[in-house]
Amino acid sequence: MHLDKLKILIIGPCDSGKTCIANYLSESTNMDEAGVPRPTQGVRIVEFELPHVNVNDKQLKVDIEMWDCSGDHKFESCWPSLRLGVQGVILVCSSNTANVAAREMELLYNYFVSQAKLTPKQCVVFYNCEDDQEDFDSLSLSPTFSKVSQVAVNLKTGGNRLKIDFSNYVTSLIQTINKV
């Protein structure tokens, strides 16, 4: 089985930590150096390789093209281009964005997953937590997300867990794409 590149969008409300997650997964930056977040202007494409992905008992090297998308609606005119050829969507929200997250996540899911004809298995929700006490209950996502994997992410204490969760998501994504 051969994949040229896996195109994954990472999108969510402004200030939810999408770029921090993208940087961490791609090992683009040391989290200690991250500093003050700067809003992404439009989109930023990060390319990296996952060297040991186990799919159906085969070890694969997977090239990832992660599109770190701005959550600012002023870039909405770019959305059709972002969605073109997408194979997976990571929706990110956080406690910072909990007040707008439910409605915003529904809108993003509808546009980037449903209208792109992706399945719920091709999507994952990363809830970017500041501490271990936070959970998804504060989000109150709609029933639309009942079939979507939801993962709590804490970059300060659980970065390795995030890498495992991401690798599992990529495995599931490849299996889903190959069934289609």
UniProtKB/TrEMBL annotation:
InterPro entries associated with the record: P-loop_NTPase
A Pfam family the protein falls into: Roc
Protein name: Jg14858 protein
Gene giving rise to this polypeptide: jg14858
